[in-house]
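Can't paste images in this forum, so I'm doing it all in text. The chain is below; anyone willing to post the predicted structure tokens underneath?
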Amino acid sequence: MCENKRNYEEQFKKILEEELIPAMGCTEPIAVAYCAALARQTLDVLPEKVEIFVSGNIVKNVKSVIVPNTGGMKGIEAAAAAGIIAGVAEKKLEVISEVTAKQKQDIRAFLDTVPIAVSALTGEEKFDIIIRMTCKQNEVRVRITHHHTNVVLIERNGEKLFEKNVTDMSETQEQEEDYSWMTVKNIFEYASSVDLKEVEPLIERQIAYNTAISEEGLKGNWGANIGKVLLCADKSIRQHAKAAAAAGSDARMSGCEMPVVINSGSGNQGMTVSLPVIEYAKALGCPKDKLYRALLISNLIAVHQKKGIGCLSAYCGAVSAGAAAGCGIAYLYSESLDVIEHTLVNALAITSGIVCDGAKPSCAAKVAVGVDAGILGYEMYVQGQQFKGGDGIVLKGVENTIQNVSRLGAEGMKETDKTIIQMMTGK
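Text version of the structure:
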């Protein structure tokens, strides 16, 4: 048992290090910018022609969101142009975090003068970006697939400078990896006992970055200003928790040039799992160590759910993140594992089925709904109420319910995803 515990600690820390990373801007257009910056770096001159091939979910998540540091532009072409003109590939998901006023002008000029063709890929992979650039007799090709920084090919004039063997990679690969060891019970035990020095830098960065963009969302005029709207209704702790997460999404979806710490490849999910927990910790006067452990609960429970659903889906990530935030809030109230498990089940029963129709300002409202469901799921159980096995997709046992939700998001909503993409592309 002790050996198992040590193994869990190592694996959980590795997951946190991989998942809780900074990104500036919505992660799908930033992945396009990163791919373009790598291609431009490999070509070593400005291209005369750019061809971009992307999976449908990339189209869905790039179409309606503002690319930061572009002067308010949207779309795949704008993201690629920003990466080509101003991208620093070594910064990965912060690839266009430092763009000068002159470079912003150059991005627009590049879009006006260089042909950029965007085509849809027809394979089953949900996350796939291929960029080909040419200049005179030189041609480069770069591919990122499966997740935002997973570069699998860098090619120049037919010579493979870098390649991963991903010929048979499919959208189900992540689901097929063995995460059977990850359970809500193991997460609870890890969060309750881990030496916080091991994770403090990761959690502190998440608190600092996500709080800063949330405050900007409440100060400025971003998107539909969902955060401000929520605080006009009332100023309870519950409302502040929802508003904090929504305000961060307001700013991020509308091109705010501030980084966030993501979760499961998503900035909106990173803010949703963290900001409501931070707001409750403030209101309750919780010590720092209690907040850290609660954030470990919320972050890892969100990852646990998304491992089965996959990185991109028609299943809205605000649902899993909001449910996880409810679990973190329950931990702040010193609740037991039993309460946290039932909080999660209740929350998933309430909001599972909200669709993801791409990144855009309305994500902030979905974030607020997801957080509300997480809090309601907790409040229900402490008042003796719960959804039971057989109620819709709920099964007896939290892990069984998570498996059902994973099946719903990864398999059941495949056709929904295709239909949404067709609607968004006018087909």
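Confidence is low (pLDDT under 50) at residues 168-176. The chain has 17 helices and eight strands.
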